[in-house]
């Protein structure tokens, strides 16, 4: 049952939302011990469930990432440095979710401050992929993805900085959407990279993604990057198309110059053939700039991490300790940031501080900023002729735990396909295509779809038609 089906059954009286909520919470106790998708649960009374069941989302159980504030509940970003921070207000996206009648059922596990590529750098435990417990569920948003893929929730909200919605969606067989930068307010979301972060959705279908995205897309005066959501009806109209006649799709050929898992490439090629069968014109195009996207991202993102996490100093925010009068400097340095942050967070803070230093600012950060602008212009040129751009969501399949832990660079390189939309601010999504067989298990593969600035309608049209063709 997906989100749309759930709402229909509640509206028709076929499903009691209170019974569904209670049974789901009970089932999740055993599921979470295996998957560890949720780090804590939120409790609603039967009366609250009954009240919101008449609202648009009909008390649908939804998970949010642990860096999205929900008033009165602990929000830790799964870091020791935050302690047991209790949110004094709700993030705008969570507030709108609740105003539309969602039942926020819990907080999803995540890499510390969303820094990681596998949910292995959570301070309190790893999340397992529901399709294969020996494999990672994907980037920092793995907890939310695993909760939806493992049938612990109907949908989830998550932040995406360089692929943290789309990569787990690919690894867990879900629809993951990162909307245009500014479409969803970031107010109340604990920031990692402010110019890169955007709130996205995990759902079971493309139609669910449109429904959930539109419930949280509003102008917010608290967020200077927010804009008034435009043409919601156009996105619903996009779901009604049955073919892709006259739709032009671009594939950037430089992205296939590097190593791509043969099984991923096979699933991608099969999806391309389905798009052609649906009537689309699919062509290869050149964009040499994409070769440098990982290098630019791993300059911009750590620089913003270094700035955003500087406030967690044990004085303004973060882990606080008592120190002796004579040794307080040494004790402070060793027990607050050194003990509070784990290795990946420290690695990115140090990298960011380095590229922002007076000696390196112009040669590193400023050059990366100029590259972002050039990439935007290159993508604008492509979208002037094509409706969407596609390529695989990830060049690799979900790896087994520990395979890349000692080689962070190899995990960074796995971001290559999802980084460009964050650097440029355009919308992007991942949808599941044909899975592959490994050791007798069906391992998901995702197709990455991008559209021009604020043109989610084009993206959803292609995704929905392809979804229908895959489902027969």
What does this structure look like?
The chain has 472 residues and is of the alpha/beta class. It contains 17 helices and 13 strands. The strands form 2 sheets. The protein has an 11-stranded mixed sheet, sandwiched between helices. Helix 10 (293-308) crosses helix 13 and helix 10 crosses helix 14 (361-383). It is globular, with a radius of gyration of 21 Å.
Describe how the helices and strands are arranged.
Blueprint: H1 3-12, H2 17-35, E1 38-41, H3 46-52, E2 61-65, H4 92-99, E3 103-108, H5 142-149, E4 155-160, H6 166-172, E5 175-178, E6 198-203, H7 206-216, H8 232-238, E7 248-252, H9 262-277, E8 281-285, H10 293-308, H11 328-335, H12 337-340, H13 343-355, H14 361-383, E9 388-392, H15 408-413, H16 419-424, E10 428-432, E11 436-438, E12 441-443, E13 446-451, H17 456-470
Parallel strand pairs: 2-3, 2-4, 7-8, 7-9
Antiparallel strand pairs: 1-3, 4-6, 5-6, 5-10, 9-13, 10-13, 11-12
Helix pairs in contact: 8-17, 10-13, 10-14
């Amino acid at each position: 049952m997906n989100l749309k089906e759930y709402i229909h059954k509640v509206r028709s009286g076929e499903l009691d939302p209170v019974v569904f909520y209670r049974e789901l919470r009970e089932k999740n106790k055993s599921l979470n011990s295996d998957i560890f998708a949720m780090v804590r649960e939120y409790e609603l009374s039967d009366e609250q469930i009954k009240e919101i069941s008449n609202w648009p989302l009909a008390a649908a159980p939804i998970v949010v990432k642990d860096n999205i504030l929900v008033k009165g509940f602990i929000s830790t970003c799964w870091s020791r440095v935050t302690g047991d921070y209790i949110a004094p207000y709700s993030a705008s996206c969570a507030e709108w979710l609740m105003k539309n009648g969602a039942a926020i059922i819990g907080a999803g596990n995540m890499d510390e401050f969303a820094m990681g590529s596998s949910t292995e750098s959570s301070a309190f435990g790893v999340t397992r992929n529901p399709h294969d417990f020996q494999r990672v569920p994907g980037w920092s948003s793995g907890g939310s993805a695993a909760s939806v893929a493992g049938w612990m929730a109907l949908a989830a909200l998550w932040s995406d900085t360089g692929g943290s919605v789309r990569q787990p969606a690919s690894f867990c067989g879900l629809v993951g959407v990162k909307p245009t930068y500014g479409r969803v307010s970031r107010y109340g979301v604990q920031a990692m990279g402010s110019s890169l972060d955007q709130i996205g959705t995990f759902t079971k279908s493309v139609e669910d993604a449109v429904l959930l995205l539109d419930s949280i897309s509003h102008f917010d005066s608290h967020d200077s990057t927010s804009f008034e959501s435009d043409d919601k009806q156009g996105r619903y109209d996009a779901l009604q198309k049955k073919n892709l006649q006259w739709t032009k799709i671009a594939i950037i050929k430089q992205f296939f110059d590097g190593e791509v898992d043969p099984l991923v490439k096979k699933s991608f090629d099969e999806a391309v053939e389905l798009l052609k069968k649906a009537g689309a014109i699919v062509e290869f195009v050149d964009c040499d700039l994409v070769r440098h996207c990982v290098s630019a991202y791993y300059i911009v993102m750590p620089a913003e991490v270094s700035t955003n996490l500087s406030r967690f100093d044990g004085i303004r925010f973060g882990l606080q300790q008592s120190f002796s009068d004579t040794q307080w400097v040494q004790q402070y340095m060793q027990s607050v940031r050194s003990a509070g942050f784990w290795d990946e967070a420290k690695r990115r803070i140090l990298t960011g501080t380095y590229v922002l230093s007076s000696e390196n600012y112009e040669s590193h950060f400023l050059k990366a900023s100029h590259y972002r602008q050039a990439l935007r212009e290159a993508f604008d040129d492509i979208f002037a002729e094509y409706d969407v751009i596609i390529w695989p969501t990830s060049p690799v399949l979900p790896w087994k735990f520990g395979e890349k832990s000692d080689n962070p660079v190899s995990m960074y390189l796995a971001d290559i396909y999802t980084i460009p939309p964050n650097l440029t601010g355009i919308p992007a999504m991942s949808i599941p295509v044909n899975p592959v067989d490994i050791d007798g298990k069906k391992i998901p593969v995702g197709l990455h779809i991008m559209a021009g600035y604020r043109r989610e309608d084009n993206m959803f049209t292609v995704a929905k038609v392809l979804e229908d063709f895959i489902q027969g």
